[in-house]
Amino acid sequence: MATAKKTALKNKRQFRVRKKVVGTPERPRLAVFRSNKHISVQVIDDSAGKTLAAASTYEAAMREGSGTVAAAKAVGAEVGQRAKAAGVTTVVFDRGGNRYAGRVAALADAAREAGLEF
Q1: Does the domain made of 2-113 have the CATH classification 3.30.420.100?
Q2: Domain residue ranges in the chain
Q3: Per-residue pLDDT tens over the stretch 9-22
């Protein structure tokens, strides 16, 4: 029962964020997915339905220490570089219902340092 309640609360947070946050061609959405083992992030243009850049600890180059804050920083830096290569400088942040702490905050800070503006 506790797991179902936690999942329901996370879904409520996710829908609350998603009804306000929409990616446009000028300002795409930086969407974060966090699991216990991995973290992945995409830069999405919702109007066209396309992913402009992505990075994840599922990739072989970033798999080492995948559930840590250091890995989240590496993913944030990588997505920042890939987004700039795709011509994206400003994004709107979609934390995916996760609290802005720990790995999610580390990813966001690393993306900011890589040159993305939130």
Answers
A1: yes
A2: 2-113
A3: 989 999 888 888 88
